[in-house]
Amino acid sequence: MPHSSTLTSPEIWASLDEKVRAGDEDRWLSSRYASKPERRALTALYAFAYELARVRLVVTEPGLGAIRFQWWREALEEIEQGKTPRAHDVVGALADMLAENRYDIGALKRLVDQFEDAFEDSDRALQPEALLTATAARVLANAHGWGTHITSLAPHVAALRRGERVGYGPVVARVPKSIRPAIAHLRLRRLYGRPTPPGKLSRRMCVLRGIITGQV
Description:
It is a single chain. It is built from 12 helices and no strands. It has about 220 residues and is mostly helical. It is globular. The relative contact order is 0.13.
């Protein structure tokens, strides 16, 4: 692992933040309520997931997709081996955060595998929503007792975001305060199930309510 967290400039962090905001504003909204160090870890994680998710938008040929996913595997392996990270903003940010022990690198590798499975099967329902959410929650707290709820709720909310009519979904306990910046966006299921798409203000207020009450 790198011995210091000095790879990524403030300008790169700002660019990554905008990338996440544009690509996954729901998670971005929740992450605003984390402390700055934790917010950076969430930003790097979500930017990584964005890069993996967008492979299906960039290429359609299985062989080209396999090359892209393998690139990310090798980038993670090089970080794990202590080699100089590749010249890529997300790779640098991940290296910074791994140097601070913000993630389990095994979880990052599993994200690559599961996003590739979804790509190969052309099935977005296979994308690792639960693993991504659980990895984000671990950034904030190693133990929180909400793992079962993440497993049941995260894929359901993802289906609602895709426009699928799957209903409100499982009833879950309040989210512990420690992990709310990684979870509160799941409350948006209350809006995505409605006939009319929610506006920006209503989405922001919904996430804020999730942060305050822990009810998602």
